[in-house]
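Revision sheet: structure tokens.
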Amino acid sequence: MLRRLAGALAITTAATALVIAAPSAANASSTTTIATMEAARKQLIRTKIYWGRCKDTCRIRVRIKNISSKRLYDVNLRAKLRVNGRYMGLCRDHVGQIRPRGVRWASCTVRGAKLNRMWDRYLDGRIRWDTRVNTVVHYEWYG
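Predicted:
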């Protein structure tokens, strides 16, 4: 029931936005331009991933560089580890603030029974060991 109501609310909101933007073609193109600019906005950081020991536990180190002239507040790292395309775990780290043009390091460790079993299978020679990590860094800044 709640899903149905939430879906109806979303459709009504979208239809209202279309009706408001529809009266002039210039207005519609400007809203499209604004949406495109929002999607293409530059990121304020650059990251580089370094590996520590990665056997039955994997240590992931990330260098986070602030490339802007703004102070970044409440910076957090989230890293998802995959071995041979299989999800092994997630780790998080709170970094804090990063000054303009500054660099901070974040690190976290992924460990678990699934990762340990995969490492044992690798030592037995039954699988290969290809590690990949996806990182997401969340931050806040005030213009």
